[in-house]
Amino acid sequence: MHRRQFIRRAAAAGALGTLAVGTATAAEPPSRPDHLENVGDDLDELRKYQPSIIASREARQLLVGCYGWYADSSEYPDLRAYYYWFKYPTQQSGLTSLIPFLSGPDAHFSDHEPYVCAVDKSTGEVVRTLQSGYHHFVLDLPESDLELRTQHGDGPTHPKLRVVDPWHHFRNGRGASRDGVLPDTISGAEFGSWLDKRDSWYKNDVFKKTSKTAVEDPFSLIDSRDTWWKDGTWDAWAARNIWIPLGLRGADESDTLRVEDS
After folding, report:
1. Residues 93-110: pLDDT tens digits?
2. Which residues partner with 128 through β-bridges?
3. Phi and psi of 172, rounded to 5°?
């Protein structure tokens, strides 16, 4: 069996196991914030603002898919936010990595890495990007710090980002000698609508430890939030107080995070 097929079948088996024990308490999707307008998932629009990622061969093989959507906001009339989730088969929780012999469910049922691209609605230019820069903590990159690439005939609208193995968080790819690739061109990976995945991801508890505000409102990340984690989770506390200060579990392979500037 091809390695990629094996990984995906194993992930699917894990998903069925989770559903078998968790159906009765499956989470329901929350209501979207009232200030969101013109919510959409047109794939041509999503392709235009997907990042150009520098990823290892293994990371590209592991990528299950990239899923996006976009919205305007009455509170940010000049901006449109394009919001994507990169899905990989697995990532260990902070507790499991701290106690190696401890086995248990994944911290967030597979590995889901978020990326938000804020765009000036009048010019179509990228204003800033907000991505998981380490363990679901925000890496905030203004346009002046980005290398924007022209690909697919679009552009320059594709920020160049590096994917860090094996955690899959993002670093700024500006100045890197390698060119990036667009997620929708990666063989075997799906590119589609997050709105189509939304209900099933909630029901499968993908966002059990994630702030629903951060999931549903990309504009909440533009000025204020420093993490996608829900308040009070072990993973958020460990990353903020142990992993980041000590440079452990990939924290030494990250750019300056918003939480480190606060």
Report:
1. 444 444 444 333 334 336
2. 118, 142
3. -65, 130
